[in-house]
Specification:
It is a single chain. The chain has 7 helices and 2 strands. By secondary structure, the protein is mainly alpha-helical. Among the domains are: 55 residues, no CATH class; 48 residues, no CATH class. A hairpin with a 4-residue loop joins strand 1 and strand 2. Helix 2 packs antiparallel against helix 3 and helix 5 packs antiparallel against helix 6. The termini are far apart.
Amino acid sequence: MTPLARGLVHFIQTGAISQTLKTELRRLRAEPRLHQQPAARLLQYCAGRADQLGPIDRDFGRICDQIDRADVMLAGLRERARQGLGPAERSWPEIDGPRTIALARRDPESDMVTVVVDATTANITMFAVAAYADEREAHLREVQRVGESLPEGSYGGRNREAIAARETRVAARLRAVEQAYRTAIERGAALSMPESSRALRSREHVADREIELE
């Protein structure tokens, strides 16, 4: 096995970037051959990793492949949305239900996390989010009820206030996720509606607004 092959195998398996791999990629980039462009892209990725060149995960290659497939899927959905088309018909595999997609990506600079899941998993997840929000809101009401019976300024009263504040923040975040998901689903449904139906809904909305203003 050549040094380049060994470096690539190790990279695909774990994400680790060796000095040998970078050297071989530079050599390929300088040669006017078929592999010049892929070598340049991989070198650009290596440069983006800076000094963080160690192994990432034993399933690095599989995860990268899943991310690539998810990116292609999202690009296709965006293109269909721009054309006013609904989601394409899915081909069901030889298993009970669609293939599960569950990917997450964290931006270390903004600390933002992007999650990509298939529609079935998203529906299940949102059901769990809504149920957990219900639990937190029920706990909040119970804490507030007990707190009202305690003396003002007491340790128990202050403790209940802190618990209520925490439950309020947690429930608000859960409801924000639920609302964002519902908004995305409603927008997707609106984009997939025929033009005549969207025009009718628009006229109905204007009529409702006129009634509210009277």
